Amino acid sequence: MTAVPAGLLFLTGAGTGLIGALLGLGGGVFLVPILTLVLDVPIRAAIAASLISVIATASASATVNLNRGLVNMRLGLVLEVATSVGGLAGGIAAAHLTHRQLFLTFAATLGVMGTLMAARSGRRNVLPHSSTEDPGRLGGHLREGSTLYMYRVKRLPAGLLASLVAGAISGLLGVGGGIVKVPALNTFCGIPIRVAAATSTFMIGVTAAASAFIYFSRGDVVLPMTAAVCLGALPASLLGARLSERVHARSLKMLMAVVLFVVGARMALAGL
Amino acid sequence: MSDAPPPLREGPTALDRTIEVVLTAGLLASGGMLVAGLASGRAAFLKWGILILMATPVARVVVVTLGLLRERDWLFAAVSLWILAVLASSVYFASGR
Asked: CA A95, CA A92: separation in Å to the nearest integer?
């Protein structure tokens, strides 16, 4: 592997951590393409570094989101059952897929999710709160400005399926899977985007950990490179998570849709 | 879990706070190790910094499980135990290579 300067890795980790935390993702969806396409890091080492950096970003964002009461922990737990199994399976399966197959799967997933997100960006998923309404075991409340909203969790099986897919993609490609879960939870399950992002981020640490140990034991984790990326990601994701409150839900969705298309196109080009 | 109407839950709960502390402690310990490792060039520090980082979400699940057991929320405690079992099998699979 060509030696990439530690300062450049630190900045890369900081940039992807900032944007990842801002969008409620782990940031791996940007880190893997940058490490492989721009910095020429071999894909296995990039995936391993990304998985570990995603743990740093997701854990740092989770501290901020927990403090705001945005994390729906019980929903997160139920969905983690699926993401952790998917993550474990993806981590084990990763050794058996070609790079080309990985790149193209990645690109296709991003394209589908970007379309969903863009198409649904104008919809609201929350109802103004009234005391007679029961959000159910898994639903919750969300305050936006002076209004308190209530949401129920719809189509839980769809959320579980998306989480399983997200976990498997996480284990295969070194991303946290937020890029799959956040749009799916918002679109199919009716979770407000901020709660979807915060709950997804809360789950990502566990999802990534389920496969990170496997990558570590395979010797794919390049220690100095991973350390530099993580050290950049840590402070930047704390900043990103704090700033994310100032971004409007609609622009958050549009920004995510754009990001999905751009990254998807780059990954498709790399796979063809 | 009760038959009473659901309380209007807003803002962080006590368990949210505890998890926040666990995550912050894990990140600080890991970050300190990684800085020491990069500065000194000693791979052992880097290795431990990364292992602590990977263990932080696992510690979080342990804390959530204990918190749910304390709240006597058996269903969700069982869900949390299942996640711990998946993580444990990942470590077992990894260590068996």
From this structure: 7
Number of structural domains chain A divides into: 1
Q: A42 — contact with chain B (CB < 8 Å)?
A: no
A79 is a domain residue = yes
B95 neighbourhood in chain A, CB within 8 Å: 217
Interface confidence, given as ipTM, is 0.87
Looking at the domain assignment, is residue A220 inside a domain?
Answer: yes
Helices (H), chain B: 14-40, 43-70, 74-95
3-state SS, residue A152: coil
A151: enclosing H helix or E strand: strand A147-151
A71: chain B residues, CB-CB within 8 Å: 16
Which of A10, A50, A80, A133 should one mutate to test binding to chain B, selecting the residue with the greatest count of B CBs within 10 A? A80
pLDDT score at A37: 81
Q: Answer whether residue A252 is part of any domain.
A: yes
**CA B73, B76, B79 angle in degrees (round to 5)?**
145
Its domain, for residue A21, covers: 6-271
Evaluate if residue A130 carries a pLDDT over 60.
no
